[in-house]
Amino acid sequence: MAGQHPEVVGHLAGVWLEQAEANNVLPIDDTLVQRLGAFLAPAYHPGASAVYLPDASPVVDESLPMLFGGFTLRADVTVGAGAGDEGVLCALGDWNGGFALFLKGSSLFFAYARADQVFVVHAPADALSAAGRHVLEAACMLEGGRRPVRGAYRRRRPRGGALRGHLAPGHPARGTSLRLGHDAGFPVTDEYAPPFPFTGTLHALTIATPAGGEHDADGEIRAALHHD
To answer: Which of 54, 92, 177, 224 holds its CA 20 to 30 A away from the CA of 113?
Structure first.
């Protein structure tokens, strides 16, 4: 098509450049390694793991642990009798890059999107047959140089299956916010349509990375008091 209508291609390229300049996209720079030297880390980084509570504003990505080396999501929830509760537990980004943990049809789903592909795994459909408080877990961890996606279910003790798909390394989304209990905008996967609010009770979400250790609250306070 482009070869048949080169004048249309030229026109569209000109329009793109005009809009790029008007919206401060230019200059385009692909020197990633050089630009990493100018990276400024957040003054109060959350560390290797953090706990987030619902019913608040979206969590900016600077308040999240670094997710490059893999991460685990743990949602502390209460579901009602009949296993009918469903909805988004957490979501970051959209189908262009991000992840989402959600319940649908009594199954736990974990979706991980990158620019060229969306991976979706889910736990067995009968995993949430019992009403009460549960810990729902999904992990995206490095193994053998590849990053498998896992979906797992836990109640008081780990149980349930693990399903895998291989992903490229990297942060799932930058410049976006983490939403708890619902999603907004575009979804991470077509398996749900935002906002798809969670109909049960979400008590807390924990994001942990492989380097996670015990939370040093005293150290954070000292750093904040001495920060210039």
So the answer is: 54
